[in-house]
Write a structure and sequence with these properties.
Layout: H1 2-50, H2 53-66, H3 70-83, H4 90-104, H5 108-121, H6 128-142, H7 146-158, H8 164-177, H9 181-194, H10 201-214, H11 218-226
């Protein structure tokens, strides 16, 4: 019995000694977490101080856009262009502003203005390509001005980069919608000549056959369609 009581007493003393250690560990853990949070906050504040005014505006715009605060985001982008037009962020601010007008506000005219402004003010920017693509799509599919859309897609071809086969296809489609079937067919033939391995080939051959049929060239149309089988 004496030995049993001794074991219980020893176990009790060990448990009592362990409790302060656990408490000290929790205290140290809290201290470390608080210090870590303070360091992160100080680092973020330091980084913000190092950013230029247009960089801060751009960062704010991206953050607001990600949170769904579209009006606030567009204002930040607009402020960059209006107050800091020579900043490196200005061209992308215009592009993002245009996309907000195009996709969020469904205002093709305002979006088109932003894209054209980007191209005019920053002609050497790599963002001219996506701006021209969006502008061409607006003119063709939103404003439904096929004659003008041909000019926009031709200007994309002039850059000699991007989805060139797609631009030729869009031009051909514009001519088709204008009921200029011979010119539409010619554009499709140019597309196939320049890009024989284009993934658009089946669609191009099918539509080209239809245009030949409209021109009364039945045999040529059948040949195009048979090549698809």
């Amino acid at each position: 019995m004496g030995l049993q009581r001794l074991k219980k007493q020893l176990k009790k003393e060990i448990q009592q000694e362990a409790r302060p250690k656990k408490s000290r560990f929790k205290l140290w853990l809290i201290v470390v977490l608080v210090l870590s949070a303070s360091i992160v906050a100080l680092f973020y504040g330091y980084r913000q101080q190092q950013l230029t005014a247009p960089q801060r505006l751009f960062s704010l715009g991206v953050k607001q856009e990600s949170l769904g605060n579209i009006e606030a985001a567009e204002k930040s982008y607009r402020d960059i262009y209006q107050h800091y037009p020579h900043a490196p962020e200005a061209a992308e601010a215009l592009l993002r502003s245009g996309k907000i007008w195009q996709y969020n506000h469904r205002d093709g005219q305002r979006a088109l203005l932003s894209y054209l402004q980007l191209e005019y003010d920053y002609p050497d920017s790599p963002l001219v390509l996506p701006a021209r693509e969006e502008a061409a799509a607006i003119v063709k599919y939103t404003l439904k001005d096929d004659s003008r859309a041909i000019e926009f897609y031709q200007r994309l071809l002039d850059l000699n980069t991007g989805q060139l086969d797609q631009y030729y296809y869009e031009i051909a489609d514009c001519y088709f919608r204008l009921k200029n079937y011979p010119q539409a067919r010619i554009e499709l033939e140019i597309l196939l000549e320049k890009f024989p391995d284009t993934p658009l080939a089946p669609e191009v051959l099918y539509r080209k056959g239809g245009m030949l049929l409209l021109e009364g060239r039945i045999t040529a149309a059948q040949q195009d369609w048979q090549s698809l089988i």
